[in-house]
Amino acid sequence: MTSTDITEEGEPRFVRLHIELVAQITDVEALKAAALQQVQNDEYMDDDERAQAVEAVEIDPSGSLAHFVDPLKLLGEVPGIELAQATWESAHTEFDPENEDWDLYESGDAADE
C-alpha cells in the first residue's frame, strides 16, 4: 500500500486483491456437466449470454471453472466491506510443480503483497 492509497482520515478506501489458483481438472465430463447446470441456473444471464457460456463450456472445459467463482461469497459476509468491482477468468495453463517458477511461497512475490 502506498500513501496515495490512504484517505485523509488515514483509512484505506479501496484494496485490490490478487489471487492466483491452479486447479487440476480430474474429471472433464463432471466439470462440464456441473458448469452447464450452473449456467442454466444463473438467474442473471440473459439468453445470449447463456448461449455463449454453453458454447464456451463445450469448446474448452478449462473455462468452466469460472462459472463457480463468486466474489460475493468470498467477501459478502466480511464486516465493513462492500464489493466495488470484480473480474476473473479461467484459462488452461501448463503447470509443473517441480519448476521453481511455480513455487509462490519461495519467491519474494507472495511475501511482498
Detailed description of the structure:
With 113 residues, the chain is mainly alpha-helical. It has one domain. The chain has helices at 28-41, 47-59, 71-75, 108-112. Helix 1 packs antiparallel against helix 2. The chain starts with 27 loop residues before the first helix and ends with a helix. Residues 107-113 have low confidence and may be disordered.
Give descriptors for this structure.
disordered C terminus, 0% strand
What is the mean pLDDT? 80
Strand content: under 5%
Radius of gyration, in Å, reads: 18 Å
Care to count the β-strands? 0
Largest sheet: none
DSSP helix fraction: 25-40%
- Number of self-contained structural domains: 1
Reading the helices and strands in chain order gives HHHH
Unreliable sequence segments: 107-113
Shape: flat
Q: Strand pairing plus helix content: what structural class?
A: mainly alpha
Count every helix, treating DSSP H or I runs of 4 or more residues as helices: 4
Distance between the termini: 9 Å
Summed up:
This protein is mainly alpha-helical and 113 residues long.
Task: Set down the secondary structure blueprint.
Blueprint (H helix, E strand, L loop, with lengths): L27 H14 L5 H13 L11 H5 L32 H5 L1
Helix pairs in contact: 1-2
